[in-house]
Design goal:
The complex is a heterotrimer.
Chain A (H helix, E strand, L loop, with lengths): L2 H18 L4 H4 L27 H8 L10 E2 L2 E2 L1 H19 L4 H6 L3 E4 L5 H6 L1 H4 L4 H10 L5 E6 L10 H14 L4 E8 L5 H9 L3 E7 L10 E7 L11 E6 L6 H18 L9
Parallel strand pairs in A: 3-5, 4-5, 4-6
Antiparallel strand pairs in A: 1-2, 6-7, 7-8
Helix pairs in contact in A: 9-11
Chain B lengths: L1 E11 L3 E13 L9 E11 L3 E2 L2 E3 L2 E2 L1 H15 L6 E8 L9 H9 L7 E2 L3 H12 L1 H8 L2 E7 L4 E7 L2 E8 L6 E4 L4 E5 L1 H10 L11 H18 L9 H4 L15 E5 L1 H7 L12 H10 L17 H8 L3 E2 L5 E2 L6 E8 L2 H5 L1 H12 L12 E4 L7 H14 L1 H5 L4 E5 L4 H12 L5 E4 L9 E4 L10 E5 L5
Parallel strand pairs in B: 1-7, 7-8, 9-14, 17-18, 18-19, 19-20
Antiparallel strand pairs in B: 1-2, 2-3, 2-4, 5-6, 9-10, 10-11, 12-13, 15-22, 16-20, 17-21, 21-22
Helix pairs in contact in B: 1-2, 3-10, 6-9, 8-9, 12-13, 13-15
Chain C lengths: L3 E4 L2 E4 L3 H7 L5 H6 L6 H13 L2 H5 L10 H8 L3 H7 L4 H9 L5 H8 L4 H9 L3 H10 L4 E2 L3 E2 L6 E4 L8 H13 L6 E4 L6 H18 L5 E3 L3 H9 L7 E4 L4 H6 L4 H14 L8 E5 L3 H4 L8 H13 L5 E5 L11 H18 L3 E4 L1 E2 L7 H13 L4 E4 L4 E2 L4 E3 L2 H11 L5 H9 L28
Parallel strand pairs in C: 5-6, 5-13, 6-7, 8-9, 9-10, 10-11
Antiparallel strand pairs in C: 1-2, 3-4, 12-15, 14-15
Helix pairs in contact in C: 1-3, 5-17, 7-9, 9-17, 9-18, 10-18, 12-13, 13-15, 17-18, 18-19
Classes of the chains: A alpha/beta, B alpha/beta, C alpha/beta.
């Protein structure tokens, strides 16, 4: 391959990337405009760098069956520059989801009753899961005052992803609409900072509601920084086994759509109230 | 959580009729830590009936009573009670389908076939069913390319093209092994189908009832039929006669993409593979047609694959490959199920994106279905936004309920079919708008087109999913 | 037995050998979480000094979980070769360390030695070693095993193809298998961690693997990493598996948390002898990882390195084909950052090899750990330099089901090139036959192109 060939290839590859980006071509083309290409504009399903595949169409179709990073090609045995940068961007997204705090303004703006676990810092939260499962004294007092005992108590917790909070405004109204359809009203929503799943047991014991729903940020995978889990339990208590919880995970725009998940959660909560059980005993 | 659906396939062909029973196993494949995801995990043919000659009272009339006996025997031998059958299809293919008593035949079978068995409607669906039974869809998926199947039976040749697993086009020619019949004892031709008579006439080949069955001459007839198959695949220029051979006038075989591999199913496919058969072994042109295909230089230009099923492709397709499942988070009133032959009102991506246009389109197009009466079910179908906001779902529900209002007032159920995963929240939103008492079905995970019909079965897997059969009458 | 020492004028006394072992550990957040770690850096060194001076016999005779109470302890102790043990029981732990590192000590010497060691002794030596000591020590312990092919040969570096998918979708799994094979990954094993631990799903994926393996004549071994009893049920019903997998722990209580016992594993092995799809004799596959005992409160107050070593002692009973430590999966509460993950990876590989099991490593990290892909590439390089039998391979290092990152498909050939190694010989030949690489190990245009498998294979089956 001579120099011209290489230059042509580079142009083709860059043009290819540009073409697939949502940004206008003139803004994203290297050398024109003032922006380098947005490596995250293309999804892993659509990112494709293999220059001369044996079966291009088949390859592209095959990629639709998985979000795994396939068809990324290589530089010698190593990664293609753009797929490597895309990976790094996705890791950055995941790390930011973990290590960034939820904006307190957002919490108040949602009208949540905001408290905190026994953890004082993110670092303590990450290394001391036991402390994340308990409410601090101030929060216990606050929740006792503000969260009236109701059929369903809804909680939101940051967990391991602050970015997951983006799902909350889509899940909550769907849950509430579903519950209304069953004639059930939910009380005010509690928020817990530095929250582990076990905190719902503390709240269950404190408030004495029939069921507790906790929407909490999941430990992010790569580029799934927004993924949220919904944990539910009938009369949760700290001494109940893990198997008493019902969980719906993978809620985000790339997984189970948040609004759809909310509707499903409402049905599950109704089932728990009817059958007075939760977790593995609650059959589909 | 697991459920097994018993499915029946009944194929009444020009020459032969067959029955198969299958067990379609569906199972929730979710981890238990996510929303449920019920899928078909296994399809097993549990009974393959004998290949019987289709009983006829005259060369053009099916003996409905004898056929019913034949099917009843299959149920008895398989040990299946009609009530157990949850899905499947009856297919009347080939020339027979146009015989005057096809409707009567179906009526005779309807109680036997259970309450959710599809009577197919036309060559397009039959072609796709045969292609699936032959395994062309699976092969195209495995190879990541296009695979075509020609199911060549007694009366018709059903073509279907699959692109990476999905049907891409279908067509049908009146070409089959049984269109010329020979009395082996007398060595004479006893039947020539009208179109084949015209074909021979145009080609200057003598072939008429009463003629001596001359091997060389009949080879030329088979060759002329094979030429038409080549023409249909663009391997030879189309003759003036060619449009005549199409089963549905004007409905030619379309090739939106080149054919990567070609397979043959149907009874004649066995004669393509096996060169050792007596020329008139079956008292018809089947063996010679198979030989003509085998020797065709044109057809052999396309790489060949062996079909998974040959003579049984249609019945296997009907019995095991016709049923799909809805998504696993859906909302419906079970009292409306099963429901059959629901026409599709399909909205485009543009229409669904614009609430005003969506409402107008629904209202306008509901008029097309007016003939069936104001309360007859019509399914509103659209692809649906991926991961919509809650507000967007509310809007969709509002538009649908408003546009359907006159029909709702007449008592028509609201039926919504989408591709995107949103049926649970959309269904709950429909309920909020319709009020708790009005019946509706809201399912996702199903792709349909305008002009299709759907059958929606009784709930399966503890009510998590609904079995669905999409009946495609034509490809666009 | 001396449990006390003075360091820079301060005297440090330890309760018992279990306490010495715990405090002699390099810093691990898991030991801190358990409340058993050294409180100061000096106390840590003091513990190492005390440990170095203990006799091998002292350490053997103080298993961290009593023999009477624990099946793992019994298996480890019962499997000791007493003649070899007698010859080393009066060595100090310091002398044992130096014997292993001695130039004159050969691979055969270490393999013989290992039969006289208990897991506490193995762990103890590791605690006296620096990272480079662990690497040199491990490199000396060549451990081979044979299933369909032979793993662990000198100059050979294998990889597990891990085609995980969030819904176990067969098309998606197959796509990932094709891509991995196109990158020369999968010679150690093609093994899926299923989302759904059911017989039906396990069977479905095993069938998929068997079909693909037969079509393309891939010389490797396949398995689905469901629970051992699920795999057994699938195999009994006719599914073809080359290996049986199970996660194991370093105490009976820990194994109970995985719903497994020695008896079950023996039954699994027996089943493979009669119904397995592979040549054998090594048909078991185990995964371990520091901290798993603590996470199920089954650590008996012992440190996570010692508990990890006990996994290998337990595993050895069942003559596995593969053992690997999933080193960074458990999270920052057990291994806080890349320094701890790297250390744990080298410790585990050394301890496994010294125990005599064919050791691999899943060098990985989760997104709530302070580590990144560079750290894991570093660890992979250190592991291959140490003679590690195999590492994982996932598409671009991103496991979309387990939601963590580990070594990617591209690492396999990069590491082979860096160290002049080959894939497992039969697989290496297949790569040449498939024209992925030339016989001189040059990558062809087909290398990295999964769509080469989207064709009909001539002469297949």
């Amino acid at each position: 391959m001579n120099e011209d060939d290489i230059a042509r290839l580079v142009r083709e590859v860059l043009a290819d990337i540009t073409a697939r980006n949502a940004v206008p071509a003139d803004a994203a083309s290297p050398g024109e405009g003032d922006e380098a290409p947005d490596v995250t504009a293309v999804t892993t399903r659509d990112e494709f760098h293999v220059p001369h595949p044996a079966n291009r169409e088949g390859y592209l179709a095959m990629k639709q069956s998985t979000v795994a990073r396939l068809g990324v090609w290589r530089a010698g045995p190593r990664y293609n520059t753009y797929s490597m940068l895309h990976f790094r961007a996705d890791h950055a997204t995941a790390q930011d989801a973990v290590f960034t705090d939820v904006d307190p303004g957002w919490v108040t703006g949602q009208g949540f009753i905001a408290g905190q676990s026994l953890c004082h810092s993110k670092d303590e939260f990450l290394t001391r899961p036991d402390l994340g499962r308990k409410l601090n004294d101030e929060t216990r007092d606050l929740f006792r005052r503000e969260l009236t005992r109701s059929t369903v108590t809804i909680m939101v917790g940051d967990g391991l992803s602050s970015s997951a909070m983006v799902n909350v405004p889509e899940i909550l109204p769907a849950v509430k609409q579903g519950l209304q359809g069953f004639g059930i009203e939910a009380g005010p929503v509690a928020y817990v900072k530095y929250c582990r799943v076990g905190a719902m047991d503390d709240v269950g014991q404190l408030i004495g509601s029939d069921v507790v729903l906790l929407l909490i940020g999941e430990r992010p995978g790569l580029a799934t920084g927004e993924s949220m889990s919904a944990y539910m339990a009938y009369q949760p208590r700290p001494d109940r086994p893990e198997s008493w919880r019902t969980v719906v995970s993978n809620i985000y725009r790339g997984g189970t759509p948040p609004a759809e998940a909310g509707a499903h959660i409402a049905t599950l909560l109704k089932r728990m109230l009817d059958e007075k059980i939760s977790g593995v005993d609650l059959k589909l | 959580m697991k459920d097994v659906l018993t499915s029946v396939g009944i194929d009444i062909g020009t020459t032969t009729s067959q029955v198969v029973f299958s067990h379609i196993t569906i199972e929730d494949l979710s981890s238990g830590f996510t929303v449920p995801r019920v899928e078909i995990v296994d399809k097993e043919i549990v009974y393959r009936g004998d290949i019987c000659f289709t009983p006829l009272t005259s060369p053009t009339t099916i003996d409905a009573v004898a056929l019913r006996d034949l099917v009843t025997r299959a149920y008895d031998q398989a040990g299946v009670a009609p009530g157990e059958v949850k899905t499947g299809a009856v297919v009347i293919t080939g020339e027979t389908a146009r015989k005057e008593n096809a409707a009567e035949v179906l009526a005779h079978l309807s109680d036997l076939a259970g309450d959710f068995v599809v009577a197919t409607a036309g060559p397009t669906l039959e072609s796709v069913i045969a292609g699936r039974g032959a395994g062309a869809d699976a092969a195209s998926k495995r190879l990541g390319s296009t695979v075509a199947n020609y199911d060549i039976g007694g009366g018709t040749s059903n073509f279907a093209l699959f692109d990476r697993g999905a049907p891409a086009s279908a067509g049908c020619l009146d070409i089959g092994g049984r269109l010329v019949r020979i009395d082996r004892a007398r060595g004479a031709i006893t039947y020539v189908a009208p179109k084949i008579a015209r074909l021979c006439n145009d080609a200057g080949i003598r072939c008429a009832v009463g003629d001596v069955a001359d091997l060389a001459r009949l080879r030329r007839v088979a060759r002329a039929m094979c030429d038409l198959l080549e023409m249909s695949l663009g391997l030879a220029p189309k003759s003036a006669f060619y449009p005549t051979i199409l089963t549905e006038p004007g409905h030619d075989v379309m090739l939106p993409k080149p054919i990567g591999h070609l397979m043959f199913s149907g009874g004649v496919a066995d004669c393509v593979r096996d060169a050792s058969r007596e020329p008139f072994a079956y008292g018809d042109l089947g063996v010679l047609l198979g030989a003509a295909i085998r020797d065709s230089a044109g057809l052999s230009r396309i790489p060949r694959l062996d079909a998974a099923e040959t003579i049984r492709a249609t019945v296997v397709g009907a019995g095991t490959h016709i049923t799909e499942l809805s998504g696993s988070t859906i909302e419906y009133d079970a009292s409306l199920l099963p429901i059959k032959n629901v026409p599709i009102l399909k909205l485009s991506r543009d229409e669904e994106a614009d609430p005003a246009a969506m409402g107008t389109s629904i209202r306008d197009r509901l008029g097309w279905f007016a003939a069936d009466g104001p309360a007859a079910p019509v399914a509103i179908a659209f692809a649906g936004p991926a991961s919509p906001t809650f507000a967007r779902v509310q809007e969709l529900a509002r538009v649908i309920v408003e546009a359907m209002a006159p029909r709702v007032a007449e008592g028509a159920p609201v039926i919504v079919v989408t591709e995107s995963d949103l049926a649970k929240v959309l269904g709950q939103s429909l309920r909020a708008h319709l009020g708790a008492r009005h019946g509706f079905i809201c399912i996702d995970g199903i792709a349909v087109e305008g002009g299709d019909y759907v059958d929606i079965g009784a709930p399966a897997a503890a009510g998590v999913v609904l079995p669905v059969v999409v009946k495609t009458l034509a490809f666009r | 037995m001396k449990l006390k020492t003075t360091l820079l004028g301060k005297t440090y006394a330890f309760r018992d050998i279990k306490d010495v072992l715990a405090k002699a550990n390099e810093v691990k957040s898991g030991d801190q979480l358990a409340g058993i770690a050294a409180e100061t850096a000096q106390e840590r060194v003091a513990a190492k000094v005390v440990l170095a001076d203990l006799l091998v016999g002292d350490v053997r005779n103080a298993p961290v979980v009593p023999y009477e109470d624990d099946e793992v302890t019994r298996i480890i102790q019962d499997d000791v070769n007493e003649r070899i043990y007698d010859s080393i029981k009066n060595m100090t732990m310091a002398e044992l360390r130096e014997y292993i590192l001695d130039d004159a000590t050969t691979t055969n010497d270490v393999r013989r030695l290992s039969r006289g060691l208990t897991s506490e002794v193995v762990a103890g030596v590791a605690k006296l070693m620096s990272n480079l000591d662990l690497m040199l020590g491990a490199k000396k312990c060549v451990v081979q095993a044979h299933c369909n092919t032979t793993i662990g040969g000198e100059g050979v570096f294998g990889t597990r193809l891990q085609p995980n998918h969030p819904t176990d979708d067969p098309d998606g799994v197959l796509a990932e298998v094709m891509e991995g094979l196109a990158y020369g990954v999968g010679d150690a094993v093609i093994g899926l961690n299923p989302v759904e631990d059911s017989v039906a799903n396990t069977t479905r994926i095993l069938d998929l693997f068997a079909d693909f393996q037969d079509t393309w004549n891939v010389p490797t071994q396949c398995c689905v990493l469901a629970h051992v009893t699920t795999q057994m049920a699938a195999i009994e019903a006719g599914a073809r598996s080359d290996l049986i997998f199970q996660s194991i722990a370093g105490s009976q209580l820990g194994n109970e948390a995985f719903a497994v016992t020695g008896r079950v594993l023996q039954d699994a092995r027996d089943l493979m002898a009669s119904r397995g799809g592979s040549t054998g004799p090594n048909v078991m596959y185990f995964e371990t990882g520091q901290g798993s005992e603590l996470s199920s409160n089954a650590h008996h107050g012992a440190d996570q390195v010692t508990m990890e070593a006990r996994c290998y002692g337990f595993a050895k009973r069942f003559q596995p084909f593969l053992v690997n430590t999933v080193v960074g999966f458990i999270g920052p509460e057990y291994l806080y950052d890349s320094t701890q993950v790297t250390r744990a990876g080298l410790e585990d590989h050394f301890m496994g090899k010294l125990t005599g099991v064919p050791m691999g490593c899943d060098a990985c990290y989760t997104n709530h750990t302070k580590a990144d892909q560079n750290d894991i590439e570093n660890l992979a390089v250190l592991l291959v330099a140490s003679g590690c039998n195999y590492v994982m391979g996932v598409p671009h290092g991103d496991d979309i089901m387990l939601m963590y990152q580990c070594t990617g498909y591209h690492e396999a050939e990069s590491l082979r090139a860096l160290f002049g190694k080959t894939a497992i010989p039969e697989f290496e030949k297949w790569m040449v036959d498939m024209e992925l690489i030339t016989p001189e190990r040059k990558l062809t245009d087909r290398f990295g192109d999964a769509s080469i498998f989207l064709t009909e294979r001539q002469g297949a089956r």
